[in-house]
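Lab manual, section 2.4: Encoding a predicted structure.

Procedure: take the sequence of the chain (131 residues), apply the prediction step described in section 2.3, and record the output as structure tokens. A sample record is shown.
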Amino acid sequence: MSPAPGSRTDDEVLADTDVAVLLRYGLAQDAFRTALFGDGAIAAAVTLDRLGVLPRSLVFVAEIVRSGGLAYAAGLPEPLPSPEPAAILRDWLAGAAQTAATPEAETRAARWLVAVAEIIAMRRTTREGSA
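Recorded output:
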């Protein structure tokens, strides 16, 4: 089955999307918010899903962001159980912490992490259903 018109592969989304930049600016500037929760969330989900991150791990980090803030979550030695995805997430969170100057921006970051977790869960459900 060929992809729908206008659809892109995972690799194309990853090549066209800088998650760190979208996260930094999407939390603070309305003009980037749609891209953050669209392509940014998809690219983050693809990246972390390929590294085996479980959705519940991201939901847990979202709760840490809600409770302690982005800077606190970014400072965790292991925000995720595996080193490679933990380093990627820590980098994203640290960059976002530099621009998220309001409690609303931090709440938005937590919501974004949950959105990424939901996309990972949908991807896994789809793969399991087609297997």
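Check your result against the sample. Helices lie at 10-16, 19-26, 30-50, 55-68, 70-74, 83-99, 103-130.
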